[in-house]
């Protein structure tokens, strides 16, 4: 049983300090002055060489943001954020949009190397020749050895406020796929940006989305034209490095008629005592017959064992199944962040469109997760499926909050929801808050939720076969989340499995 | 001071506040009771809850409560025969209780008397800023019954607490204390005619090893606003089965707030909600498992026709020390019309690890396969649908087992289908 062995090895290897991406790198940076006002927004816009209309768009969002109040309905608890005490722009010096890899600061390249994200295309090509590692076989289990080494993946690397490099652009361009940083897209493809930016998550959507619209600094832009199946996995790797900075990235993915794209997102940050804010907006648009698969392995720094430090992850992710027969699928593995506030959603506007949400949320220490999804059925014969697995350990609070609604015209809307929670230890909490709203008689909604602990019988069964307690738990947990892991791209699945092992380390007894 | 204070009062809010001023001199009780009333009306003055208040998310009371009828002293209503044969009947007609009967092992008191002498003041509590039902009731409550069942009393006949009115306003409270080891069947009947605003708060204290079957049967007219609260606390090994049937009313909110405070306590909620016309019916439950080794099951079945809107919110809180809790909740809805709506929010809030909790919720129309099965046997569609809907609800009622209880409830169900089917 290689998978089992792998988990066990993984759990054993981890030391007390479980977060392995917590290093910090000294890189000369250029920052905007601390705080937030219209001048800062002009500064960001200017830095990005943005056209006038984009600045106006940002300023309008900012003025709106000033009138909004911070939402408090989520089941998370944190001291009030001082939005004037954050740097809204931090970029490595001499980095006004690099043309080639040679221009990138070698220190930054080292960071990504350390993280295991190859930015040199030849390296990745070498990786192709290497036989793709089968799931579970992780003989070369070096830190940072993950998806990015074993396959051919185009990467957009975002460092603090800017995208430092995007790989495989040329090869993708041959297939007609645009993959670049959003700043570049604003300059190069204004017509697409004007048409789609803010069309899924309007600037007025919510407090953090509005803030993001005002100050977003970078992120990825993907455009897959009609009938094109994107030839490789696309990926963005986010890294917060600078102190006291917020990262506000904006991702926009458009799949035209019949197109297909699979997109991966990864993220890490250094270990720091203070909290850092990450407020992203991700918008997906799928036209007729298009399919977008969006996978996230969220591994921001979760804070230390006493709950000090860590990232506040306040993210708005939404997919719009605009075309008939389109499909959007969200898969997420949440193990990091001090606080997570995130509801990747699907608006099922097109007839026969489909939305999927697969999630594993693991919380330990003093982490707080309030996450889930929304499936808004608007078109006819739309269907959705939600599988959510929450695992709470330590002193953490883990909440699933999800909404399923069928509008009057959404005939034959179907939904199946399953959200299971597992509690490890008696200092943590698991909560389930589903909102189910049917306004159509032909809708068919099913919702199931369970909460339990790992049963003593299960544990006994495994331990009786000579497996120590901690490993037995890891094994049972992996079985519990299997349904979601299966939905991840293969290499990601391995990383996710490892992460779950890491996050639960030390939670026994 | 705050934003809400500046909000323009809705006509209903203004009517309530004005009515309080006018009724003040007529309301029983002074001193401590009056302080409670003042606090409660302050809460109403701050505004009725809107959908932004989480516990009222699907019932925007501020918007839905369009008008409030005035108190009507001339309204005439008469007590009706009790639901279950042989019941001891205590009726409240237009908000006024009558003389109390004699029953061995039970003492009855008119609540008006307990308000006048102030002895009820400590129990006159609201449970939070979103407790609009409790606040409205506390401000205006004038009567009701206090029922005290002595320890070790096995009541053979049911007790029916009947609240009946013919328009106007009526605000009653029904506190019931059941001593250790006692057993009783209690019927809470809420009915009437005309345009009424009714608030009713039932408070049940269940002693150790006591066992109660409590039936709430609400069939107010389609013009009435019915705001009700049922609160219960369960002692050691106490067993409570609460059966709620909503078969009327225009705007109905039935809150169920239960605390399992003693080890071994068991709570069962069975609900049947029949929605027709323009009605808005909301059943909201908050259940606390506060100690180890308690169990609960909730099954709520809803049928929605016409332009009706149905809501079920159920929250199970499992406290940190409440290990070995076993809680199950199910909410099933048949949505039978295109204009009907149903929203449900079954929540679990769990702080103990060694528990087994689950909930399930479904919203569907009638299963086509089932319909086909019957129609293939020569049953016409209308009859087949009727049979399936009845079967869907009967399952919950039949679980009560006791024929003397099941039969009258099924008869009520039949009556509803005769007029709304």
UniProtKB/TrEMBL annotation, chain A:
<feature type="domain" description="SUF system FeS cluster assembly SufBD N-terminal">
    <location>
        <begin position="172"/>
        <end position="230"/>
    </location>
</feature>
<dbReference type="InterPro" id="IPR055346">
    <property type="entry name" value="Fe-S_cluster_assembly_SufBD"/>
</dbReference>
<comment type="similarity">
    <text>Belongs to the iron-sulfur cluster assembly SufBD family.</text>
</comment>
<dbReference type="InterPro" id="IPR000825">
    <property type="entry name" value="SUF_FeS_clus_asmbl_SufBD_core"/>
</dbReference>
<dbReference type="InterPro" id="IPR045595">
    <property type="entry name" value="SufBD_N"/>
</dbReference>
<dbReference type="InterPro" id="IPR010231">
    <property type="entry name" value="SUF_FeS_clus_asmbl_SufB"/>
</dbReference>
<dbReference type="Pfam" id="PF19295">
    <property type="entry name" value="SufBD_N"/>
</dbReference>
<dbReference type="GO" id="GO:0016226">
    <property type="term" value="P:iron-sulfur cluster assembly"/>
</dbReference>
<feature type="domain" description="SUF system FeS cluster assembly SufBD core">
    <location>
        <begin position="238"/>
        <end position="480"/>
    </location>
</feature>
<protein>
    <submittedName>
        <fullName>Fe-S cluster assembly protein SufB</fullName>
    </submittedName>
</protein>
<dbReference type="InterPro" id="IPR037284">
    <property type="entry name" value="SUF_FeS_clus_asmbl_SufBD_sf"/>
</dbReference>
<dbReference type="Pfam" id="PF01458">
    <property type="entry name" value="SUFBD_core"/>
</dbReference>
Automatic annotation (TrEMBL), chain B:
<dbReference type="InterPro" id="IPR037284">
    <property type="entry name" value="SUF_FeS_clus_asmbl_SufBD_sf"/>
</dbReference>
<dbReference type="Pfam" id="PF01458">
    <property type="entry name" value="SUFBD_core"/>
</dbReference>
<protein>
    <submittedName>
        <fullName>Fe-S cluster assembly protein SufD</fullName>
    </submittedName>
</protein>
<dbReference type="InterPro" id="IPR000825">
    <property type="entry name" value="SUF_FeS_clus_asmbl_SufBD_core"/>
</dbReference>
<feature type="domain" description="SUF system FeS cluster assembly SufBD core">
    <location>
        <begin position="168"/>
        <end position="392"/>
    </location>
</feature>
<dbReference type="GO" id="GO:0016226">
    <property type="term" value="P:iron-sulfur cluster assembly"/>
</dbReference>
<dbReference type="InterPro" id="IPR011542">
    <property type="entry name" value="SUF_FeS_clus_asmbl_SufD"/>
</dbReference>
<dbReference type="InterPro" id="IPR055346">
    <property type="entry name" value="Fe-S_cluster_assembly_SufBD"/>
</dbReference>
